[in-house]
Structure formats: C-alpha cells, structure tokens
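ok so for the tutorial part 2 we go from a plain amino acid sequence to predicted structure tokens. step 1 is just haveing the sequence, like this:
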Amino acid sequence: MSFFPAMLVMPVKKRVRTPRRTHSALTLAISVMYAAPAAAAISDTIQPYVSVALIHDDNLLRLDDGQSIDGQRSDNYRQSIAGLQFDVPYGLQEFTGDAHVTRVAFSHFNEYDYTGKDARGEWAWKLGTHLFGHLGGVYSESLTPFSEQSSIDRNMRLQRKEYVDGTWLFHPSWQMRGSFVRQQFRYGLASQQYNNRDEDTATLGVDYLVATGSRIGVQLGHLKGSYPDGTLLGFLISDGYKQNDAKINIFWQYSAITQVQILAGRAKRTHEVFGERDQSGANGRVNAYWTPVAKVKLTGSAWREFSAVEGSTINSSLNKGVSAEATWQATSKLGVNGLLRREKRDFGTVSGVAVVSAPNDTLRTANLSVTYTPLPSTQIVAGIAHSARSGNFAVGSGNYKSNSVSLSAQIAF
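step 2 — the prediction. this is what the tokens look like for a chain of 413 residues:
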C-alpha cells in the first residue's frame, strides 16, 4: 500500500526575484503577544497556537566552498506555523496530540517554497496498576533537507510512524516490556524515489527495578528494512536489510544530581544483496545527565549505531558520535541552550563501485539559543547555528559549511 499522495510531486517554478517583506510578519506577531492579556487558555485541554520565524542561512543548499547557483549561496526565509495541540485525560487514560501547518517562503530561492503538514497523536493507556503503555502515530510532510540528499532539486519528503509499546509490572521488582514501530519514508522527486523506505522494529526486554529508582535489564531487538521502489545503479533490485541485536538496558540513578542511561550490546546487520556490506559488532548509546544546580542541566551522549542512508551507491552506515548539551534557566523568563555535536559515518559501498578515498564523512554542528518568555503563553527565541561536513563525493556526501541566525515568536491561546 502506498501512503504517498499523488499531488506531492510539484513542478519547479521559474525563479522569480520578487522581494518579500519578511520582517513585518514577525513584528506583527510580537506586537500581538504583548497586546494579548495574560488570560487563561481557551480550553484546559485544547490549545491553538501560531508562530513565525525569520531565518538567514549563508549556505541554504549546502554547497561546497566556492560553489553557487547563479552567484547565490545565502537566503532569507520566513516560517509561519498555525497549529492545535490537546491533552485530554480520561480516567486512567490520557490522549495527547498536535497538528499544525507550516508555510515556508524563501526570498531568493523561491522555487523551494512549500507548505508542510505535521500531526501526531498518542494514547497513554493503563490497565490497573501493573499494565501500561502507549499507542500512537506521527505524520510529517516537509522539504527534504539539502544535507540529506545529493540533488538540489525540490524534493518533498513524507514520513509516517506508527508505534505501540507495553510494560507489565509482574512483580514489585521486575517488569517485562515490548514494542513495535513501523516507519515509512516517501520522496516526491522521481529521481529520488529509489530511497523510498519501509522499516519495522520490534523489541522485547525484561528489567530488574531497584528501590533507589535504578533499573538493569536486557533487550532483544529485530529490525527489517525494505525499498519497495528501489533502483540501484540502474537495476531494479530488492535491497532490503535486517538487523538483530542483544543489549543491556541500564538506568543508574546515582543521585538526584547524576543519572546514567546505557543501551548497548552487539548487533548484526545483513543485506539481501551485496553481502560484503554486512556488519556486526558493538552497537549502542550512552547518555549521562548532570544537574549541579536547579537551573543548570548538562547532558552528554556517545553512540555507535548502524543506520540507513539515502544514496544511490550506498544505503547503510556505521555512525559514531558524541554530543554535549547545556541548559541554563537564568531567570523565570530567560533560558539559554547550547549544543555541540560530532558524528562520523562509515559507509558500506555496493559491489563494483570504486571509491578513490575512504567512504566516510564527518559532520560537526554547534547551536546556541536564547528563549525569552514574557508571558506564560508566549515565547521569543533567538538562535545561531553552525555546521560543517567533510565528506566524499564518490558516495554522494559532499563538503560544506553553513551558518545561520534565526528569530522566532510563538503565542498560544
């Protein structure tokens, strides 16, 4: 069954250099926020909201140094959002969700203008005090980031996700849990539809619960991926893959200040064709949380994981990375957030593809944002971001640097 709308593929418009007044929308939004009274929300369970953001990116298309399109690399664009979120408790059950429409308009590269659609819903279910879990779904339709594709053509991406999980507390110190997740990725650009992908993931685990709040357990996982419309090197093939893993699952509540989460073990990934890409080995993620004072939270992460990749000569990678994030709630109305991240991807190339240098890339990112909350229902966020990738053109991963600044305002009713 295809979940890809027929109208998702849209022709590229002729580039029109019509100037746009992007600043007026943000000025109006901020004025409305300060004019709005500090009243209660429209409903205790349903909350509409709107937001507008202005962004400047000095390398919108993620071009290599020295490259440009008609002499242009940078662009300004406006992102306008209107949405509705809800949170409805019903006895032991809780229903939450969000739906919003996003309109993105570029000043120069306006052939990429688009309207995105996002929705999510979840039922947090509970049967008595020993059986509980979640059932939900996510839908997202947006422009594919240029950092994730080798083409600079307009390429809309549709993502769907359905999931269910459950936990059975069969003893005060023991629990059993399981989950199933189905994800689908569809692309509007005909030349990129070999990347259309389906992925099913199932897990089963058991944990021992410590009175201090810690837990230790084991988890088995199975993943199956397929490319229903995939073509590779001009040949129609079934280039699916499978992954089986066994991991330890630990949450260590060292203190109220320090916690460590570990999900790590061994995984084996196999492919239906070109078996030389098969891999096995250590696989997992470690997160550490430290809250030295009430207003400061630090998070560190490290991972080594197999992942799918969108590409014509590759579709898998081994990702190794680290990240550090800091959050500071300076005052009741002012917060600061910073993030540093580095990830290296080692690609598995297909048989017959000669690669001059090592088939890998490294992406480094740094983000800093300041959030001002003048009223409980309003936020103003200013941010800066930097990213740089050193890649390999032979596998469709180029080199680029980009810097961006943004200013956004949101109000909830």
